[in-house]
């Protein structure tokens, strides 16, 4: 079955208010239009994608639409005119057309698939959500506002979304309807077809005004695939000598010996800094904060860690979680672990439950076991924001 997708992006989003046009507004770094088109252009059930754009954008489309699988047409004055222009450009092999509003960037692959399958079976299908609120039909308003004419039976009310899908013959007949409609399902109904409801998705929101953007950003973050996560490891060791403080994860611990090195010689901060820089493939602590540079000579290690997290942030990453093992023969760190976690979490700007800290000894073996050194291993997971 050959399926063509039509992305209706021909409007200018007037309720969104001005430049740039709504479909080019970015949500977490990717435009609404790019997200909507990508959901269809990467879908395994879809052959061709046709995007109806405002004439000026169609003449000079964004780079992400210059792809062999994507065709661009200029939209018309009404939504149904844009869809008609796009349908005219569809391949003759097309059997089912799935139409989607570019202002809904979060339709899932499963939603697209079940809408297509339903239309292939019964001719016309629309994604819709059962109403959760009680629905009132109002009558003419006066200056105090509208008045309720009747309360509708909620179980008979569905709120239409897109995608909407149609067999070619059904869509051809629907587009002959000349009255204006806000979606293609309404045209198919008027043309005499039964339109089947498929379960829509609460996250498949339509972005209409700037007030919708915070929710859109939340959905975009939640929908971020796990493959954008990146892991990095870090390791550090410092000699222990008398007459030095022992600072571990930003916490000064009473001890007979302290760590030898520049500044506070904090092995945990150094290991976590390397883990974060490593996860972002940004090199290591020595490259960014060389101790030969007077600026870093006496910088506290917790401050270097804060800077490393900010550097990862500049490259578009946030820290997901950090796990650390400290290897120290004595003293035991157990009573300081909570303070250490709080220090690291504050430096990284994340919740304390995303920071783990564990203590170990080396069972008296090697230099660490003899109490001559302290070491730390760290792993950090970062992800695109
Ligand atoms: Mg070090």
Throw out a few tags for this protein.
five-stranded mixed sheet, single chain, 30% strand, alpha/beta, seven-stranded mixed sheet, binds magnesium ion
Task: Give your account of this protein's structure.
It is built from 13 helices and 18 strands. The strands form 5 sheets. A 7-stranded mixed β-sheet has the order 5-4-1-6-10-7-11, sandwiched between helices. The protein has a 5-stranded mixed β-sheet with strand order 15-12-18-16-17. The protein has a two-stranded antiparallel ribbon with strand order 2-3. The model has no long low-confidence stretch (mean pLDDT 92). It binds magnesium ion (MG). Magnesium ion binds next to strand 12 and helix 8.
Layout: helices, strands, pairs:
Layout: E1 3-8, E2 26-27, E3 30-31, H1 32-41, E4 48-53, H2 55-59, E5 70-74, H3 79-88, E6 96-101, H4 109-122, E7 124-130, E8 135-142, E9 145-152, E10 158-167, H5 168-174, H6 184-190, E11 196-199, H7 213-222, E12 230-242, E13 246-248, E14 251-253, E15 257-259, H8 267-279, H9 285-288, H10 294-297, H11 301-314, E16 317-327, H12 337-348, E17 355-360, H13 366-369, E18 373-384
Parallel strand pairs: 1-4, 1-6, 4-5, 7-11, 16-17
Antiparallel strand pairs: 2-3, 6-10, 7-10, 8-9, 12-15, 12-18, 13-14, 16-18
Magnesium ion is lined by residues 236, 238, 261, 267, 270.
């Amino acid at each position: 079955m050959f399926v063509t997708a039509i992305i209706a992006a021909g409007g200018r989003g007037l309720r969104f208010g001005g430049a740039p046009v709504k479909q080019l507004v970015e949500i977490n770094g990717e435009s609404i239009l790019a997200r909507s088109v990508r959901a269809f252009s990467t879908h395994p059930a879809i052959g061709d994608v046709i995007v109806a754009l405002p004439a000026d954008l169609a003449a000079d489309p964004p780079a992400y639409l210059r792809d062999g699988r994507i065709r661009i047409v200029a939209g018309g004055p009404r939504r149904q005119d844009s869809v008609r222009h796009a349908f005219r450009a569809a391949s003759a092999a097309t059997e089912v057309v799935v139409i989607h509003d570019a202002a809904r960037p979060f339709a899932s692959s499963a939603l697209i698939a079940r809408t297509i399958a339903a239309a292939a079976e019964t001719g016309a299908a629309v994604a819709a959500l059962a109403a959760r609120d009680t629905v009132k039909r109002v009558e003419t308003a006066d200056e105090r506002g509208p008045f309720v004419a009747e309360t509708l039976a909620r179980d008979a009310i569905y709120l239409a979304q897109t995608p909407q899908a149609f067999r070619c013959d059904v869509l051809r007949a629907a587009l002959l309807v000349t009255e204006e409609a806000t979606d293609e399902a309404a045209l198919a109904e008027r043309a005499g077809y039964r339109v089947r409801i498929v379960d829509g998705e609460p996250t498949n929101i339509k972005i209409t005004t700037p007030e919708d953007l915070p929710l859109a950003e939340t959905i975009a973050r939640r929908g971020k695939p796990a493959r954008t996560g990146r892991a990095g490891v870090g390791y550090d060791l410092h000699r222990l000598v008398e007459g030095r403080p022992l600072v571990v994860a930003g916490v000064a611990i009473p001890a007979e010996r302290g760590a030898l090195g520049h500044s506070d010689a904090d092995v945990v901060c150094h290991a976590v800094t390397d883990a974060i820089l490593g996860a972002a493939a940004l090199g290591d602590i020595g490259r960014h904060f060389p101790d030969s540079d007077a600026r870093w000579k006496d910088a506290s290690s917790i401050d270097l860690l804060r800077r490393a997290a900010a550097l990862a942030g500049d490259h578009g990453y946030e820290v997901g979680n950090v796990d650390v093992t400290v290897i120290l023969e004595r003293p035991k760190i157990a009573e300081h672990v909570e303070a250490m976690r709080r220090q690291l979490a504050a430096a990284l700007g994340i919740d304390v439950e995303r920071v783990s800290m564990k203590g170990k000894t080396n069972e008296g073996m090697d230099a660490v076991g003899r109490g001559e050194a302290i070491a730390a291993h760290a792993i950090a997971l970062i992800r695109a924001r």
